[in-house]
Amino acid sequence: MLTVADLPRCLALAQDRGWPAEEGKWRLLFELGTVWGARDNSGDVVGTAIVTRYGTSLAVLSMVLVAPRHGGQGLGRQLVSQALAATPTRTAALFATEAGRPLYEKFGFTAVEELHTYVGSVPGHATACSRPATPEDIPAIAALDAAIVGAPRGELVRRLLSFATRLHVVELDNDIVGYGAAWRNLGQLMIGPVVAADRRAAATLISDLARGAGGSVRVDLLDHERELRDWVESAGATLRGSTTLMVSGSSAFPGDRGRWFSPAMQALG
Q1: Rounded to whole angstroms, how far apart are CA atoms 118 and 200?
Q2: Could you tell me which of 124, 133, 118 has the C-alpha nearest to residue 210?
Q3: Global pTM?
Q4: Within a domain: residue 149?
Q5: Which of 75, 94, 198, 211 holds its CA 20 to 30 A away from the CA of 68?
Q6: For the chain, what is the largest distance between any 2 Cα atoms, rounded to a whole number of angstroms?
Q7: Alpha-carbon span 201 to 199, nearest angstrom
Q8: Looking at the 3D structure of the chain, how many domains does it have?
Q9: 234 in a domain, yes or no?
Q10: Are 149 and 227 found together in one domain?
Q11: What is the rounded average pLDDT of the residues 120-136?
Q12: Which of 64-68, 118-122, 125-129, 212-216 is the least confident region?
């Protein structure tokens, strides 16, 4: 396993694969998950796989990377096998590119739903309709998140207070019925997670989180909410690509996916 001391080598591996060096994102993954890795004889990290576990219900696999010079040698399969075997949960999930799907299918993962990435401008309300979250809101946010996602993600929710640029909630009759976060990644404002009672609450959160972004906004939206995706496109965001939510160990993703609009990031679910 790797530690945060290996972060520079992980960033170098990501760049070797043509990925950006997303230091803040990798630091959060080191804090929340277990990072499996492989080194070559010189000590360089030539392969990674990260598993973030949420209780016994759900584990999310991410950052499966192999250096090009070690491709085709089964290293990716070995890292995935080790990571999943060491993190048994009722359901394992991941977001796969088209190129990565064949590997994951060999481990029993099946496609559940597409996730679409939109980048561009998103309309912000002139006056916020949601409110900033406070530390006192965290237990209620964590309970709502667990009910919708189907797994306890309290540590992730707590980390969002400091990691995110904005953390907002939507209330109904003084109860929190939705929440969302926005965070900076290489100068771009990333919106996610978005967890809400319905489409209207989700759109409210996205608008308020994007307000005053001062540049490009990215939001990843699950396929099931066509009208929300149409609204984002009509506002000026463009579809940049799609990945596939895949699961294994269960016939369905846990929780209520109908109220789960956007992941925290693809690496965390």
Answers
A1: 18
A2: 124
A3: 0.93
A4: yes
A5: 94
A6: 61
A7: 5
A8: 2
A9: yes
A10: yes
A11: 82
A12: 125-129
